[in-house]
Amino acid sequence: MKFAGLTLAYWAVLVTALLPFLCGYLAKWGKLGKSRREGGYDNHNPRAWLARQTDWRARANAAQSNSFEALPLFMGAVIIAHQMGAPQVRLDLLAFVFVVLRLIYIMMYVADLALARSMTWTLALLVNIAILFV
Questions:
Q1: pTM of the prediction?
Q2: How far apart are CA 21 and CA 90, in angstroms?
Q3: Which of 49, 80, 97, 116 has the greatest CB tally within 10 Å of its CB?
Q4: What residues are paired with 110 via a beta bridge?
Q5: Please, which residues bridge with residue 81 across strands?
Q6: What residues have CB less than 8 Å from 91, skipping those under 6 apart?
């Protein structure tokens, strides 16, 4: 299936590439626009500000890092599957499932549901590997 010249799997790559930025925004949510003196987001020293965060903000920042880490394997798997002539419907479905699992993973991470998060991470990794063998 194609939309605007891209397969659903390629759209999934785009969405997956944007997930780290969603996590980053989530980590800063409610603190943007507040002054640094009031504990607001410090755009002059953003990494130090994020390092001082706790609870769900710290977990959202960690989810951002993990989302960046998961991206290269997913991008490579989708590109390789396309080049190898994988059945498009199967590839699109697996790529969609990967995106859904990554969204669930982020929610579980922020909510501090560690076991569910780890299980979701594992499922997403297995789906990613399955894409390579489609």
A1: 0.90
A2: 28
A3: 49
A4: none
A5: none
A6: 7, 9, 78, 81, 82, 131, 134
